[in-house]
Each structure stands twice: as C-alpha cells, then as structure tokens.
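can u pls check wat happens w/ zinc ion
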Amino acid sequence: MAKYDITFSCGHTETRQLVGKETQRHSYIAWAERAGRCSACAKLDKMAAIEAVEVEHDLPALTGSDKQVAWARTIRAEIMGEVMEYLTTLRVKAEAQDKVAEYEERAAVLLQVIGANTAARYWIDNKGRPARELLLSAHKVTAQ
Ligand SMILES: [Zn+2]
C-alpha cells in the first residue's frame, strides 16, 4: 500500500492510496492521468448526468427530506435510463409490426405517468424494480 499524488485528466491532483501489485498501481495511474476524473469532478459529472435526464424528460422537483431527494434523484435517473432502454426494445418490435406511431404515442404517455411521481419515497421504494414492471403499472394507471 502506498500513497500517490495523481493528476487526473481534469487537471486536478489528488492523493490516493493504492493497493495491489506495482504494475496494477501504475496502470491505474496511467489510466487516471489519461481518462480519470478527480472525485470532485466525478461528482459533478454524475450530477450533470442526472440533470440531463431531468431536462430530457422534463421531470418535476421531488418532495421529501433533502437526503431523500438527493438519493431519489440518483435512483430516478437510473430508473428512467432503464425504462428508456426497455422502451427501445419495444420500439424494435413496433417497427417490425409497422406500428411506430402508436408506439411513440404510448411510450410518451407511459414516460409521463412514471415521471410524474414527485415523492422521493416512490423512487426509493422502486429502486431495482424491473423497468417492465414500472411500465406495466403505468399502463394500468392509464387504462383505468
Ligand atoms: Zn477534477
């Protein structure tokens, strides 16, 4: 174990304690200098990715304690990504059946229903739930 001052690709230097064989440590340092981000920049990147999802889907502000909201925003971004991925597989099927217009209309409604959940609790409770199940629940809500 040893401490290294590593200058990451973002230009910031951090002291990191590295373990493992010397060759592994050196390959980590080489990677960090080429493509790694310091912990502050990595955190900002993550926040920017979350905000990009929120903007893309026009997601509302969440309600709950500050801690719940911060955690729920991370989960919501993950869930929306999984839902979009699942919808992409459905789109492929819709294309094969020449039903893209119907698919797009339906997908937009379901995304809106899922995205409309403003309680931080909802996202925390649904963490790890398969996208297919969330879409099915949204479908049931709109079918009523
Ligand atoms: Zn940095």
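The chain has a mean pLDDT of 95.
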